[in-house]
Amino acid sequence: MANKRQRKKAAKTAASYEGQQYRGGRAPGRKNLKKTDTGNLVNQFGVTFTPEEKRALENAVNTANRKRARMLKEAATLPRMVSGRDTGDTIGSLQLMGKESDFILAKKTKSLQRFRDRKQFDNYMKTLQRVNTRDYIEDRVRKYKRNHMIALEHAFGDEAKDVMMKIRMMKPKDYMKMVQQDESLEISYIYDPTARSGKLNQIRASMGMKMKDESIDIEDY
Q: pLDDT value at position 51?
């Protein structure tokens, strides 16, 4: 089992890496923006931006990346579980509720060169603003909880009623931590058609619940 020193080191490594991701500076080989007589900036696709828009983008990216870094740091100290059992390892890099493609986990850019038109820029700013709202993570957790319960109902029906009830009653923060830690709680895992009864018992074990059939050993699945 990873000890306190190992987990502290993992958290420090994650924070250091994330800090490198959002500190300023132009990437090697990146083209410079052209500056107009009025002080505006023009990128390689001919899209014009004001200095205020450039600052707004940079501030929004910094805020989003700080939130991402905090989440990665917290996740780096969490023990990785399988069916409720500690593997002796840590999560290391965040896999928030199985959503590695979630925008908050993606690398952000301050570069104006990537935007081919104003619509791309405006949409990117709207997404950043949504991610930077105080309730963004909690909203995402609520949506994931709902999808999780739907998946359980479709896969197991009434057999999973007690599991769905526990998920419904959990606080978002506690639920998020639980799903982050244990791969047995990923939604895609639920839909695997093999070992159906054993799978539901694994989910129960991950949530600290008793198995329905005590004769079934979760290590058999």
A: 97
What whole-number distance in Å separates Cα of residue 79 and Cα of residue 87?
A: 7
How many domains are there within the chain?
Answer: 2
Distance in angstroms (rounded) separating the CA atoms of residues 107 and 155: 34
pLDDT at 17: 43
d(CA 146, CA 140): 10
CA distance 11 to 17: 10
The 10s digit of each residue's pLDDT in 36-81 is 999 999 999 999 999 999 999 999 999 999 988 887 787 777 777 7
* Nearest-angstrom CA–CA distance, 191 and 196: 9
Same domain assignment for residues 105 and 159: no
42 and 107 assigned to the same domain: yes
Beta strand 85-90 with 48-49 is: unpaired
Contacts of 98 (CB under 8 A, 6+ apart): 179, 186, 187, 188
Say whether both 146 and 123 belong to one domain: no
Verify that 120 and 209 share a domain, yes or no. no
Residue at 26 is within a domain: no
pLDDT in tens, 104-121: 777 788 999 999 999 999
25 in a structural domain: no
User: Domain limits at 43?
Assistant: 4-20+32-131
